[in-house]
Amino acid sequence: MEFEQAVIFAGGRGERLRPLTDSIPKPMAPINGRPFADYLLTMLREAGIKRVLFLLGYKAEKVVERYTTIKIDGLKIDYSVGTAEDQTGRRLINAYGKLEDKFLLLYGDNYWSLPLAGMKENYERLKCPLTTTVFSNKKGTSEYGFDNNVMVNAENRVVAYDKSRSMPGLNGVDIGFFLVDKKIIDPGVGENISFEEIILAGKAKEGRLGAFMTDEQYYYITTFDTLKVFEQTVKQQAIAIFKEGL
Q1: Where are the alpha helices (DSSP H) in 105-179?
Q2: Model pTM?
């Protein structure tokens, strides 16, 4: 089973990074002189991804300009452009014709080590049409400290998804990096829906949302403080990034 396409949510306004995001979208936030998205694309290429589809909205032209100006060996990049008001589910529906039968879905502001081979093995074993990556959060190092938002059972299935993080018994944090069967997306839906609140939560209720559990720390650039943390991590860990060129 091949997952060779990565689909990136990259259309929000990034309000918590204003005034930086008054002029650029969040994935273009500079990390040691390079856009955050450059690190994501390097990570994806090294994991074996061959095609990338950006789901854009707010200041979409900044992303398109960047990746039509430079060449990244081994990656073909495409775009689906909506509006800044589109929710995540709407972005997927709008891009339906460009989605491959199975694809990796991720957020444009999270970075993680991405062990794609292990994720695929887990996906096949669970036989769920959708799996998410769940950070164990044992030390409270998620975006919201010790507050979790999913409940995973002993069979590695998500049995509850709570965006409010208030339900008792939650034991992990959904960090994205989903493996998706395109069949779970209904292209006929006309509403501006949330992927997390409608599709993700719905599959959890059906018992058809699998979990890939990880203790590996993930990084996020939702605020200036967390952006600085990732900048320091890049330096300390010498995180790889592709060489710029035409």
Answers
A1: 116-126
A2: 0.93
